[in-house]
Every structure is written in structure tokens, then in C-alpha cells.
Design brief:
The protein is mainly α and 328 residues long. 72% of the residues lie in helices and 4% in strands. The chain contains 11 helices and 5 strands, in the order ββαααβαααββααααα. The strands form 2 sheets. Strands 3-2-5 form a 3-stranded mixed β-sheet. A two-stranded antiparallel ribbon has the order 1-4.
Length: 328
């Protein structure tokens, strides 16, 4: 997933925003978030739009978590991973949107250096967690379809818990490495971020020294943490489609494909929007336009994930119906 949200390679070729005169370089105490638009007439519209999307994302993912935890029929590896993905999606949107809403409401677009690092850390953590969980879920579907008789043995509770814990600690390690490296960088005296949050790719474009740090972030850390989940997804679905094609009956093919259709839809939505963002940023030099495009994977995708699973999955539908029909 994440050669995309964390680092835009095209930014490294752009002209640096800093003045390279050494006397103008110092440790900054705050950043200015330019947001999506400075048009006063659009602020009320943006506030209402993003508040609605944030509430839908949080409530939708909370319903998925409650449905999975309250229904014994959903106490399986697939839904265990889904509830963790929903939890990561809640965190992913909560890191950026509340701050944006507060900035619009108060007309105060300043974020302190420390708060920026905290926001960066959590954004990278939840984004990486999303990425790794999608890879884990792809492997789960591979075992379910290609090795159905051994599925309960392979995907046992211990392995499922271990996979989530490994994803958690790898995401934590990644976020702390980002923070550690960014905290060692020297920015301009006055720094403006053409975004509504401390986007990692924008921060990389705000300093013009320590090229080695850039290379470590762009060419070592990101490819490793992106390559492993993406490779798992590609490998799993290659084997899945190969197994489905060998099923003799059309009904059998449909049944096999339906078990992974929701996850495949989420993967396509997430990676599709992320790829679209970076293709648009490569074509258009507008940094503000890139910020608007980032909304797709950072807000829209987490908001749509619960709808994809609830609309395309009968078990989730039934669990949600039972959950919502319970007497208060």
C-alpha cells in the first residue's frame, strides 16, 4: 500500500522550499498549516463536509467492531483482523481530521513542532498498521480458499494474535524511526505546510540538508514496510485466482470468490486512491492540489470500508441487524 501515503518520490526532485543561507536555518518552534483552501466562503462547507465524513468513518468502524465482538459467529480470524483494521481506520482519521476541524473553527492554522511530530508519529503508525493488516488479511483469504481443510489448524488463535502483534510493533518501530529522523532535521525559520496536517512527504520537502536521511526514509524504510504487505497481497491473490479457476462449477467459483470480494474491494480502493494521488501529484505541480487528493486515502477510504464490508458480507449484515435490533 504505502509507497504512497508516506513518501512521494517526486517531491525529492522539486525545488526545496528552504532558503539555504545558513544564517536563515534554525530549529523551528511551529509550522503553519495552509489547509485545503484559504477562501473564507468555503470554510463552512469544508467544516460540514469533513465533520460528516469523520462521523461516518468513526461510527461505521465502531459498528463493525461492536458487531464482531458481540456475535459469536464472527469470532473467526477473518473478522478478528477486520475489527483490528476498523480500529486502525478510526485512529487514522482521528489523527488528522479533528485538528483540521479545530483550525477551521478557530481560524488558527498553527501547529507546534512537538504536536507536529506527535501527529506525524500517529499518522505513520496507523497508516502502516492499515498496510500490514491488509497483507495479513490477504494471507488469511489465501489459506481459507487454497487450503480450506487445514484452515483451522494454520490460522489458529495464537498465530492470528501473533500476526496482529507483529504488525503493531513494526508500525510502532516505523513511526518512531520517522519521528527520530525528522527530529534531527533543520528546517527554515518560517515553515508553511501546504496541507491540513503534518504530512510526512511534505515535511521531507521542507529541509534541504542531510540528504542521507531522505534516502534512508525513501529508499530503505518505506520499501521494506511497503514491499512485504504488497508482496503478500499479490502472492495471495495470484494463488487465490489460480485456485478459483480450477473450480469446475460456476456456483463454486462464485462462492469461493465471494469470501474474498470485500477484502479485495478494500485493497483496490485503498491502493487505487493512493496511486491516483501520486499520479496526480506527478502530473500537477500544485502542492495544494496534492493535499486535496490526499483526502481520498486518508478520509474517504476509512469512511467507505465499513460500508463495503456491511453491504457485501451477509454475516456482517446479520450481525449488524441483531446488534441494532437489541432493546436498549
Amino acid at each position: 500500500m504505502f509507497l504512497f501515503p508516506f513518501t512521494d518520490l517526486s517531491l525529492l526532485s522539486q525545488r526545496c522550499l528552504c532558503n539555504m543561507d545558513p544564517q536563515n536555518l534554525t530549529r523551528v518552534s511551529e509550522f503553519v498549516l495552509l489547509g485545503l483552501s484559504e477562501d473564507p466562503e468555503l470554510q463552512s462547507f469544508l467544516f460540514g463536509l469533513f465533520l460528516s465524513m469523520y462521523l461516518l468513518a468513526v461510527l461505521g468502524n465502531l459498528l463493525i467492531i461492536l458487531a464482531v465482538s458481540s456475535d459469536l459467529h464472527l469470532h473467526t480470524p477473518m473478522y478478528f483482523f477486520l475489527s483490528n483494521l476498523s480500529l486502525a481506520d478510526i485512529g487514522f482519521t482521528s489523527v488528522t481530521i479533528p485538528k483540521m476541524l479545530m483550525d477551521i473553527d478557530t481560524h488558527h492554522r498553527i501547529i507546534s513542532y512537538g504536536d507536529c511530530l506527535i501527529q506525524l508519529s500517529f499518522f505513520v503508525f496507523f497508516g502502516c498498521m492499515d498496510n500490514l493488516l491488509l497483507g495479513v488479511m490477504a494471507y488469511d483469504r489465501f489459506v481459507a480458499i487454497c487450503h480450506p481443510l487445514h484452515y483451522p489448524i494454520i490460522m489458529n488463535p495464537n498465530l492470528c494474535g501473533l500476526m496482529v502483534l507483529v504488525s503493531f510493533f513494526l508500525s510502532l518501530l516505523d513511526s518512531q524511526l520517522y519521528c527520530l529522523m525528522v527530529s534531527q532535521l533543520i528546517f527554515c525559520t518560517e515553515v508553511e505546510i501546504p496541507h491540513f496536517f503534518c504530512d510526512p512527504s511534505q515535511l521531507l520537502n521542507l529541509f534541504c540538508s542531510i540528504a542521507t536521511t531522505k534516502k534512508i526514509l525513501v529508499y530503505i524504510i518505506v520499501p521494506i514496510l511497503v514491499g512485504v504487505p504488497v508482496s503478500a497481497i499479490l502472492f495471495s491473490y495470484t494463488r487465490i485466482f489460480s485456485s478459483i479457476l480450477r473450480v469446475p462449477s460456476s456456483s463454486g467459483k462464485y462462492k469461493a470468490f465471494s469470501t474474498c470480494s470485500s477484502h479485495l474491494s478494500v485493497v483496490c480502493l485503498f491502493y487505487g486512491t493512493a496511486i491516483g494521488v501520486h499520479l496526480s501529484s506527478a502530473v500537477s505541480p500544485s502542492l495544494r492540489g496534492g493535499a486535496a487528493a490526499t483526502v481520498m486515502y486518508s478520509v474517504v477510504t476509512p469512511m467507505l470500508n465499513p460500508f463495503i464490508y456491511s453491504l457485501r458480507n451477509r454475516d456482517i449484515k446479520k450481525a449488524l441487524q441483531r446488534l441494532l435490533s437489541r432493546p436498549a
